[in-house]
Amino acid sequence: MYAFAYQRPATVRQVQSALGKHEDAKILAGGQTLLPTMKQRLAQPSALIDLGHVAGLTAIEKKGRNIVIGAMARHADVATSELVREAIPSLAALAGGIGDPAVRNRGTIGGSVANNDPSADYPAAVLALGATIVTNKRKIAAADFFQGMFTTALEDGEIITKISFPVPAKAAYVKFPNPASRYAMVGVFVSKKGADVKVAVTGASNEGVFRAEGLEAALKAKFNPKAVEGVAVDGSNFISDIHGTADYRANLVSVMTKRAVTKALGK
To answer: pLDDT, tens digit, for every residue of 232-250?
Structure first.
């Protein structure tokens, strides 16, 4: 690593102040992406602003028909939370399938969402559940937040403080994981609330997480795994690498969607 300053503010206001004092400072949440990048000398921030001691960022609460999760809640916290497991069990299951125990006990939901890795799990849940990302400056709808690979609507100095998830009637997440990294080669999160159905796909596209509108239309007509049979999935902009071609991933989107719907129906 290169030399850098390190600060541990206790409030969000102090975080903002620290960011203003250091050019090219980076916020440190769980550090599961940032620290390895720095070790490989692919990043050289002038300072790390550690959110680990900021009060109020780890809470998990139920507010009305929403589950509100603090940005610094660890994946393990989300996976084991009784509130999440009761209200949105699919979200708890997703968190429990991220990485390995070391990653789950260090990585945070806010860090994952802010990083927007194209193969990360949480973005699919945020998009499919229609969550709201709350920052120190504003509230951002999920549909407006993700803007492409590793790109979000966050502005300079903007910090995710919590994420609010509406409780769906039915939901499930299924992924085909890379056997080494446990990242999703294709992950599909399906949610249903009233007549509304959302299908969010991660791991497949070069543009990151996206809504599969064709699959959504089929499932709105009939929420059944057979409804997606014959629905074309456009893989023209899908990832193609040593783990799977774009066509392979396009087929996985259909397969994982059928499995997610089956799981959401409790079958």
So the answer is: 999 999 999 999 999 999 9
Query: Under DSSP, is residue 261 helix (H, G, I), strand (E, B) or coil?
Result: helix
CA distances from 159 to 12, 52, 70, 131 (A): 8, 13, 12, 16
pTM of the predicted model as reported, rounded to 2 decimal places: 0.94
| Amino acid found at 110 | G
CATH number of 60-166: 3.30.465.10
Could you tell me what percent of the chain has a pLDDT over 70? Answer: 100
Phi/psi region, residue 149 (left: phi>0; alpha: psi -120 to 50; beta: rest), is beta
CB 144, CB 131: distance < 8 Å: no
Q: What superfamily does domain 170-264 belong to in CATH?
A: CO dehydrogenase flavoprotein, C-terminal domain (3.30.390.50)
